[in-house]
Amino acid sequence: MEVFIKENGTAHEDLIVSFKEMDLLVIADTYYFEIEDTIQPEKDGFCKIAASLKSLLSYWIENIINLGSKEERYLPIDFSDQYIGCFRIRRVSNQQIEISYDYSLREGWSVCPSDPKEYATSIHDYKETSNKLLIGQDELIEQIVRSQERL
């Protein structure tokens, strides 16, 4: 998995999530990352978006580490007006995570991108259409950390 910003000055179609093992490419907007006011409210542009995205990726890591046996959690990434694109993760064994990608109908404006709080455990309308992938927990976390370091 690779998460990065392809800066284009519009805050639209500039957030890229590539997960080759899932044959997945998500092109999303950074708009909600830029307008949220919990991270660097005095700044705007790339620095603020990157800081907010790094915080979200830390949220992902925390949820992966704290995922209980057979428990599901939802990791948001595509904050849009009518939906939130997210990964669903489920622990299938001590070190194995099942992951898929799709969306919930929760509106993007209703969740703070840098601190989604209860989002991971509050989704009940996940619409799954993507393939599922089994991946090692450590490998998944390592890929997320690499994305954080590149921001």
Please give a handful of descriptors for the protein shown:
single chain, 151 residues, alpha+beta, five-stranded antiparallel β-sheet, three-stranded antiparallel β-sheet, 8 strands
Terminal Cα separation, in Å?
Answer: 14 Å
Helix content: 25-40%
- Using the alpha-carbon principal axes, give the shape: globular
Structural class: alpha+beta
Query: What order do the helices and strands follow?
Result: EEEHHEEEHEEH
Briefly say what this structure is.
With 151 residues, this protein is an alpha+beta fold. The protein is built from 4 helices and 8 strands. Helix 2 runs antiparallel to helix 4.
Question: Mind sketching the topology for me?
Answer:
Blueprint: E1 2-5, E2 15-19, E3 24-28, H1 31-35, H2 46-65, E4 72-79, E5 84-91, E6 96-104, H3 119-122, E7 127-128, E8 133-136, H4 137-150
Antiparallel strand pairs: 1-2, 2-3, 4-5, 5-6, 6-7, 6-8
Q: How would you characterize the overall build of this protein?
A:
- This protein has four helices and eight strands; from the N terminus they run E-E-E-H-H-E-E-E-H-E-E-H.
- It has 151 residues and is of the alpha+beta class.
- Strands 4, 5, 6, 7 and 8 form a five-stranded antiparallel beta sheet that branches.
- The model has no long low-confidence stretch (mean pLDDT 94).
